[in-house]
Amino acid sequence: MKILVTGSAGHLGEALMRTLRNTNHDVCGIDIKESPFTDKVVCVTDRKGIAKCMEKIDVVMHTATLHKPHVSTHTRQNFIDTNITGTLNLLEEAVKVQAKAFIFTSTTSVFGRALRPNLNAPAVWVDESLTPVSRNIYGTTKFAAENLCELFHYKFKLPGIVLRTSRFFLEEDDNAEMRNSYISDNIKVNEYLYRRVDIADIVDAHILAMEKASRIGFERYIISATTPFTKEHLCELHKNAPQVVARLLPDYSSLYRQKNWKMFPRIERVYVNKKAREQLGWQPRYDFAFIIGQLKNGEDFRSPLALEVGIKGYHEEKFVEGPFPVERDTID
User: Which residue windows are coiled coil (predicted)?
Assistant: First the structure.
């Protein structure tokens, strides 16, 4: 099949290009930036440019987006143009060429304020039944783009799969308090319990979605590492997470003592990937237990693909207050 990957210079786009170039598929990568994985420099907002790239395309893997780190450096209109209009351009051209599948990379950020429980409430069980509640322009535009994918399946029978990915970047945490309290790798390994996924597992999910899209039609899936927690743990997690983890995965304690790491005192949400595992046949490898085993054996907790893609950052400039500025609640 002929596959178009948007955002090929980005983290996930590059990971997809690296993987798909080693298959029998004919793959074309597009991005606004030149890179070893970008075949054509074009912006998703350029309808004519997109039309040229879409000739004889069978599958679109749409990863190009403005991300959360851009919320403070780009306008809301920029987000609408890229995340909504750009997706619309691709969908309309996909219909024209009778594409077999449209795989849209979304984000767990679409859930927004629904991810934040009240102080004395249990942690939030985040599966596909949770209703998104807007928090910022990033999540709002990604959810709107998801709905466009659903509309195009309903109107034009374009098979569409939405993959709501959790954190997978290797960059520093954007929260200054977290950076000051925890070693960066400590933060990331903790997150594999409830809100992080390795990029290699995300690539596997995209390929499975492509293969099964025509049979499924349209669906949304949460793509995050398999959590060891169940709903019965939610109350205790939001009060004393180390106690829960020690009970379920006692092997982690000695490793954390050796590294001078610590578990988060509270966990406020748990991402659940059950639907993706059952319907896509997805089998993510990098979960907390696997990673603890890797670290105990002196191996890196990140996949070889994650290390190859590495750290890219989201801006050309450097910021003194962190890897990127946090959101401003202002009207431009």
Answer: none
How far are the Cα atoms of 59, 79, 82, 314 from residue 45, in angstroms, in the given order? Answer: 19, 11, 6, 19
Sign of the alpha-carbon dihedral angle for 205, 99, 105, 217? negative
Residues of the chain with pLDDT under 70: 70, 312-332
CA separation, residue 165 to residues 82, 136, 197 (Å): 18, 17, 8
pLDDT at 327: 53
Q: Nearest-CA neighbor of 54 among 37, 36, 42, 38?
A: 42
Q: What predicted TM-score, i.e. pTM, was given to this entire model?
A: 0.93
Q: What is the pLDDT of residue 116?
A: 93
Question: Using alpha carbons only, what angle is made at residue 106 by residues 101 and 108, rounded to the nearest 5 degrees?
Answer: 140
* Cα-based torsion angle of the residue sequence 205, 206, 210, 211 in order, rounded to the nearest 10 degrees: -30
Both ends of the chain: CA-CA distance in Å? 45
207-239 pLDDT per residue, tens: 999 999 999 999 999 999 999 999 999 999 999
pLDDT tens-place string over residues 272-286: 999 999 999 999 999
Quick one: pLDDT at residue 175?
82
Alpha helices in the chain (DSSP H): 11-20, 47-53, 76-79, 86-96, 137-156, 176-181, 184-191, 199-216, 234-248, 252-259, 274-280, 288-296, 304-309
Question: What is the rounded distance in angstroms from the CA atom of residue 299 to the CA atom of residue 185?
Answer: 13
* Cβ atoms of 232 and 42 closer than 8 Å: no
CA–CA gap between residue 131 and residue 47 (Å, rounded): 32
